[in-house]
Amino acid sequence: MSLPPGEPTVKKPLGAERPFPWRCRHCGKMAVVPKRVDYQDEVRYDGRAISFLARDIEIPICQDCGAKVFTEVVDDQLTAALRQHLGLLTPEQIRDGIERLGLSQKEVAERLGIAEATLSRWVNNVVIQSRAMDNYLRVYFQVPEARAILAAPIAVPPGVSSVSDTVK
Description:
- The structure is a single chain.
- The chain is an alpha+beta fold and 168 residues long.
- It has 2 domains: 22-86, Ubiquitin-like (UB roll), CATH 3.10.20; 91-151, 434 Repressor (Amino-terminal Domain).
- 39% of the residues lie in helices and 20% in strands.
- The protein has helices at 72-86, 91-101, 105-112, 116-123, 131-142, 144-151, 163-166; strands at residues 22-23, 30-45, 48-62.
- The chain has a 3-stranded antiparallel sheet with strand order 1-2-3, covered by helices on one side.
- Strand 2 (30-45) and strand 3 (48-62) form a beta hairpin.
- The N and C termini lie far apart (48 Å).
């Protein structure tokens, strides 16, 4: 599977396709094995530093020096833990919401006023949606009246030059 243009490349340590143990990049010993741990992390989300605990994730760790190896699988576990900590919709829940409505991603993106690529990134777990967009998705999926309003063309009253003139 190739990534869309401009997307970051996938992280894989050297020899990640091989069975464990792996060679440690820090100490050089063949001592990196998977281990289940609780991992404390801090990330920037919606312009703020968010500290959270990812419980019981599997991460390759060097048994000799303790160095951790952050693979794509580890990143996915951390992303899932962050989503859970923040109470955000998962990619599966977003996908299910779209399917339940019988619409395409393109149609939903148009009605929400976002780029189709943005919605695709949320559904494919490339990017986590903001809290505001998560709330917007929840309203869109759960409230038929909201979907009807967003599906209708924007009407500009007579004598008003644009919709922005009506919002003052």
